[in-house]
Amino acid sequence: MGSSKTLRKLQVVSPVPADIDIANSVEPFHISEIAQQLNLSSNHYDLYGKYKAKVLLSVLDELQGSGDGYYVVVGGITPTPLGEGKSTTTVGLCQALGAFLDKKVVTCLRQPSQGPTFGIKGGAAGGGYSQVIPMDEFNLHLTGDIHAITAANNLLAAAIDTRIFHEATQSDKALLNRLCPPKKEGERSFADIMFRRLKKLGISKNNPNDLTPEEVKKFVRLDIDPESITWRRVMDVNDRFLRKITIGQGPEEKGMVRETGFDISVASEIMAVLALTTSLSDMRERLGKMVIGNSKGGEPITADDLGVGGALTVLMKDAINPTLMQTLEGTPVLVHAGPFANIAHGNSSIVADKIALKLVGPGGFVVTEAGFGADIGTEKFMNIKCRYSGLVPQCAVIVATIRALKMHGGGPEVVAGKPLDRAYLSENVALVEAGCVNLARHIINTKAYGVNVVVAVNMFSTDTEAELNAVRTAALAAGAFDAIVCTHHAHGGKGAVDLGIAVQRACENVTQPLKFLYPLDISIKEKIEAIARSYGASGVEYSKQVKACLPFQFLL
């Protein structure tokens, strides 16, 4: 099927209306029209209503021999609690590339958690005239991926406590009867997944009846140390009173009480697995290898030891497919995964990026966003995501605001939910220049990976020309390929055309290969120090408590 452009001309008004009002003022195209832009036919995706579709991984197999487009990551300077507009800039840049510069483009974004959506931070669909729509569906259930993660995570949590309960209350023989129930004439068999544990134990027998009493004991008892369990239950809303709870208080649990708690769903390791996986079989292996705690003998216990790796994969079988959506101006978006950057790696999925790069083809653009500041999100994009995926970015965008630079220059504290101090609403070039040391460090760090860096200054109505010029001068002095003032929040893609041109030039003029900050074969201690030194630290000191928590290799 040939591709066709399905683009929308925005009717912008000033002052900029509320995000929800802008989103609701635009009737989205049917998602099949967006799919046509990417040469996707109906057998390449499953519809989820009129405006969302799951793109199947089989697309990757079909396009295996075709070339990739340019790969661009959007990070930011160290943000204020209000955020500096990375998502908005990512969307605005793509609207500029697709709707104004006639490029094939796909935006790759994380799925937002409902915790921040219903908190002070709000949603993550972008803002103003640079948004993903339908905004409400994007910010809420979408196609159920986070709910699948919640179910899989909590299935594993239930399996852990159930296994501890049964091992505490039953004999070895009774446990074997549960795991390998006898059939006619006393015959037993191992389930396929059990051979993974048998191999781990060094047992090569294929018939449960051939196990010695000692081998039966080793096989049926995981002997999980309750104090070592790191796997917690999750839910996808903020509920502070569930952070620490006591379980096992029912009379049938026979006094097996322990303290645990809830995390938010996107903090689950399963979310990180989804974001880093490259195929269904790869996801199956990663899920099975997740460690939930240790045995009382100090051996790590995995999901496959509990026999639930396959069940987790079944719950995640649809979640592995990215969700196709659209921007306000009708350019395609792939939404997939949403790990936090402070506890995981803070980037959308590898499979979404791989699919997108094939769909746009040579000369096209895939723009993805890295969470938090570039020191966390972009660093992990390079050292973790690109290392696993084998994908090579050509350009990194660093989003900056006058507001954040003033804060880094010594301005008053910025607090979410409170009015900004006057210092942020009136011209103060000296404060901006003082804060540009933060921007400069991000530029230097990001350039070290071998990519060209373009600074996008997300302009607010209170910013002055002198302040904006100060940022541009500082960015270029620090080694940025270019620095562009953008008004995509107020004007949509039209306000990011210069940014799009700069990004295209940056992609076309890469002169270095991708370089990682550290090799994989060094100790945890050395990796931490490599990252810290890149931030400007002279070294790292470790408390006794930290040393006790980390593996012995850390001490080498």
Automatic annotation (TrEMBL):
Pathway named in the protein's UniProt entry: One-carbon metabolism; tetrahydrofolate interconversion
E.C. designation(s): 6.3.4.3
Keywords for the protein's UniProt record, in alphabetical order: ATP-binding, Ligase, Nucleotide-binding, One-carbon metabolism
GO biological process, one term: tetrahydrofolate interconversion
Keyword match Ligase: yes
Superkingdom in the source lineage: Eukaryota
Name of protein: formate--tetrahydrofolate ligase
Record's subunit section: Homodimer.
Molecular functions (GO terms): ATP binding; formate-tetrahydrofolate ligase activity; methenyltetrahydrofolate cyclohydrolase activity; methylenetetrahydrofolate dehydrogenase (NADP+) activity
